[in-house]
Amino acid sequence: PTTNTALMPRADFYLIDKPRFRAQPLLLVCELAKRAYGAEMPTLILARTLDEAEAIDDLLWGFDPEAFIPHQIAGDEDDDITAVLIAPPGAKVADRPLVINLREECAEGQFETVKEVVAADPGERDGSRKRWAEYRKRGFEVQKFDGIKTDVINKSKLKDLLIVIPPSDKTYDYSLSATWYSEANGAQLNDISTYI
Question: In Å, how far from its chain's centre is CA 20?
Answer without folding.
Answer: 14
